[in-house]
Amino acid sequence: MKKIVQSAIASALMFMPMSTFAGMSQEEIAKATQNPLTAMYSVPIQNNTYFNAGPSSQTKNVANFQPVIPIDFNDDWTLVTRTIMPLTYLP
Fold first, then answer.
1. pTM value?
2. Which helix (H) or strand (E) holds 70?
């Protein structure tokens, strides 16, 4: 389980361009993160833990990987994909 999560995080980080923020001030970065159509890659991870779940009262863990990937077609068109990939563990 731990290796799967580590592999998913490492794969997501490989696709993030680090030069995106090089020439931007902190204010510009803050404004860009608030705009959902900004050409910025992000991989937020939401982790939920549920106690006493299932018929055997085990602890259930659900990690949602939610990558945001903008694809520019031209100056007027940008496609923004927001996929949710849940990784569920229930012993």
1. 0.54
2. strand 68-72
pLDDT, tens only, 8-42? 555 554 555 555 556 778 888 777 777 766 667 77
Question: Is the Cβ–Cβ distance between 49 and 59 less than 8 Å?
Answer: yes
CA separation, residue 52 to residues 24, 29, 60, 91 (Å):
47, 41, 8, 11
DSSP code per residue over 15-66: TS-GGGGTT--HHHHHHHHH-TTSS--B--EEEEEEEEETTTTEEEEEEEE-
For the sheet with 45-53, list strands across it: 45-53, 58-65, 85-89
Cα–Cα distance between 8 and 10 in angstroms, integer? 6
